[in-house]
């Protein structure tokens, strides 16, 4: 029996990490990044950041792409991350005291509020596009959030050519989406395709917000992960493939 073909639309290096995990599940991963990330110059300088009490991060991209000068200014601060993968990325960059909420944005807010005093200043390492309103939720808890945008995300060039090339090998069994931007990019591509191209394809998203970016005619074949984490997404993938084999 042929291995189920799973398209991974997240940007690198996360796409390769997902592909490795999916391969160990016995499936055939195909990396099809529809977006890419690039470092940007942050608006706050290291001296300003060094006066903060702690750091919050919701994306491994932010940890990977934060300038070395900011890492040096912040390395002795407590870093709060939304999940274990981002914690590992922070430790790899040299941060020493890293604590994971092991959940979503609300779990991160709860962790920070349990450990930091009202009035504390937090550096939020993030991208220009972000969701979850972390800074707003922290502000409502009396915590000051200094937004530090260190990367941007955009749709890849020649996306249509990339997808057409992948389709030449056949339609995928499942397509994974980690972000609304990737889902919107795919939606634009899907509009130009015959409905039969993805007739037997399932679509799996990391959150309901991401699912809403996909076309309405695909809704009956969309599954949303129970939690907005990579672990939950892959668990849902395993369930989808198992159900399809029954």
> In what range is the share of β-strand residues?
15-25%
Low-confidence runs (pLDDT<50, min 5 residues)? none
Number of strands: 11
Mean pLDDT across residues: 94
What does this structure look like?
With 246 residues, the chain is α/β, with parallel strands linked by helices. The protein has 11 helices and 11 strands. It has 2 domains: 120 residues, Rossmann fold (3-Layer(aba) Sandwich), CATH 3.40.50.10090; 118 residues, 3-Layer(aba) Sandwich (Rossmann fold), CATH 3.40.50.10090. Helix content is 39%, strand content 22%. The model has no long low-confidence stretch (mean pLDDT 94).
Key features?
elongated, 6-stranded mixed β-sheet, 11 strands, 246 residues, 5-stranded parallel β-sheet, 11 helices, single chain, Rossmann fold, alpha/beta
Task: Summarize the model shown.
With 246 residues, this protein is an alpha/beta fold.
Q: What is this structure's SSE topology?
A:
Layout: E1 5-8, H1 14-24, E2 28-31, E3 35-39, H2 46-50, E4 54-57, H3 60-65, H4 68-74, E5 78-81, H5 84-92, E6 97-100, H6 105-115, E7 121-127, H7 134-139, E8 144-155, H8 159-167, E9 174-177, H9 180-191, E10 202-205, H10 208-211, E11 222-224, H11 230-245
Parallel strand pairs: 1-2, 1-9, 4-5, 4-7, 5-6, 7-8, 9-10, 10-11
Antiparallel strand pairs: 3-8
């Amino acid at each position: 029996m042929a291995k189920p073909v799973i398209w991974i639309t997240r940007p690198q290096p996360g796409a390769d990490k997902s592909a490795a995990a999916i391969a160990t599940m016995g499936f055939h991963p195909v990396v099809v990044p529809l977006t890419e990330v690039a470092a940007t110059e942050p608006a706050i300088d290291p001296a300003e950041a060094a006066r903060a009490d702690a750091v919050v991060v919701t994306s491994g991209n932010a940890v990977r792409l934060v300038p070395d000068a900011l890492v040096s200014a912040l390395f002795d601060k407590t870093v709060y991350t939304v999940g274990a993968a981002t914690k590992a990325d922070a430790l790899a960059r040299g941060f020493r005291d890293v604590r994971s909420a092991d959940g979503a944005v609300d779990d991160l807010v709860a962790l920070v509020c349990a450990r930091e005093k009202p009035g504390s200043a937090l550096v939020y390492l993030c991208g220009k596009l972000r969701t979850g309103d972390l800074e707003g939720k922290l502000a409502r808890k009396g915590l000051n959030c200094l937004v530090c945008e260190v990367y941007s995300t955009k749709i890849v060039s020649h996306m249509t050519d990339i997808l057409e090339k992948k389709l030449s090998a056949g339609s995928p069994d499942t397509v994974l989406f980690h972000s609304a931007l990737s889902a919107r990019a795919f939606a634009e591509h899907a509009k130009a395709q015959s409905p039969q191209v993805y007739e037997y394809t399932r679509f799996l998203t990391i959150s309901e917000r991401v699912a809403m970016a996909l076309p309405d005619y695909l809704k009956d074949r969309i599954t949303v992960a129970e939690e907005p984490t990579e672990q939950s997404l892959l668990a849902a993938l395993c369930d989808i493939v198992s159900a399809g084999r029954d």
